[in-house]
Amino acid sequence: MKIGGFQKFSLIDYPEKVSAIIFTQGCNFRCPYCHNPELVDPALFGPLIELEEIFSFLEKRKGKIDAVVITGGEPTIQEDLLEVITRIKEMGYLIKLDTNGSKPLVLGKLIVEGVLDYIAMDVKAPLSKYQEVVRARIDPQQILESIRMVMSSGIPYEFRTTVARQLLSPEDILEIGKTIAGARCYVLQKFVPSKTLDQSFLKATTFSDSEFEVLRRKMENSFVDHCEVR
Ligand code: SF4
Predict the structure, then answer these.
(1) 213: phi > 0 → left, psi -120 to 50 → alpha, else beta; which?
(2) Theoretical Cys-Cys bridge with 72: which of 24, 109, 144, 199, CB 3.0 to 4.6 Å?
(3) What is the pLDDT of residue 141?
(4) Cβ of 100 below 6 Å from ligand 1
(5) DSSP 91
(6) What pLDDT does 40 receive?
(7) Are 76 and 24 spatial neighbours (Cβ–Cβ below 8 Å)?
(8) Is the C-beta atom of 29 inside 6 A of ligand 1?
(9) Predicted local distance difference test score (pLDDT) of residue 192
(10) C-alpha to C-alpha distances, 196 to 24, 38, 99, 141, nearest whole angstrom
(11) For residue 189, what pLDDT is reported?
(12) Are 96 and 69 in contact (CB under 8 A)?
């Protein structure tokens, strides 16, 4: 597994748990607002972190950290993802996977193997404008397959959309709502311009608080059990 970053401690990345975070290197999407360009653009890749270093850290922290979050980049493009997760799980850690949902076969295998405790899947756009938003060749049916798989997995999950006004309209969010209708949890993430893959997105904006609140209510009233704005 190519690991581009490791965070030893977090209180906010796994719901109500203390976690460590593994950042995999490489992604098959090119979302312009991506705030981890050093994990996406090969020209910006830093040195890799040895997997054994992380295993040895996690061995020592057993009992002090509850969970390990696997994020990226996009973890599901890593060939040995299942093996790595299985080894961490065998140490007794809960596992949260962050994914862009583009690899339903990989996701399905992880679900069937029972190694995931929480799934956070990005739903980046209405299916009809997916390629435009993620700036990559993608079969939107694969995203739909992942959505259905996550919803029927029995594993706690959330769907998330990063909202940049330059890419998505309020109508687009409602369209996403139709696609994930019946989901338990949906998160609208405010785009924050700090570091972006596409430099022109440093000037991008997000919806106003009142626009978010209107959408949050509409999503809860019409499509999902719980919707929150982060
Ligand atoms: S935001 Fe997009 S480009 Fe960045 S890691 Fe996630 S899926 Fe990849």
Answers:
(1) alpha
(2) 24
(3) 97
(4) yes
(5) T
(6) 98
(7) no
(8) yes
(9) 94
(10) 18, 10, 19, 27
(11) 98
(12) yes
25 CB near ligand 1 (under 6 Å):
no
- Walking along the chain (230 residues) 10 residues at a time, the average pLDDT comes out as 97 96 98 97 97 97 96 97 98 98 98 98 98 96 98 98 97 98 98 94 96 98 98
CA distance 44 to 42: 5
Strand partners, 14: 17
Mutation test residue for ligand 1: of 2, 22, 27, the one with most atoms within 8 Å of CB? 27
41: exposed, middle or buried (C-beta count within 10 Å: 0-12, 13-18, 19+)?
A: middle
CATH of domain 3-164: 3.20.20.70
Give, for 189, the enclosing helix (H) or strand (E): strand 185-190
What is the pLDDT at residue 46?
Answer: 96
Residue 26 backbone zone (phi > 0: left; psi -120 to 50: alpha; other: beta): left
CA 60 to ligand 1 center in whole angstroms: 31
Q: Is the pTM of this model over 0.90?
A: yes
Burial label for 62, CB within 10 Å (0-12, 13-18, 19+), is exposed
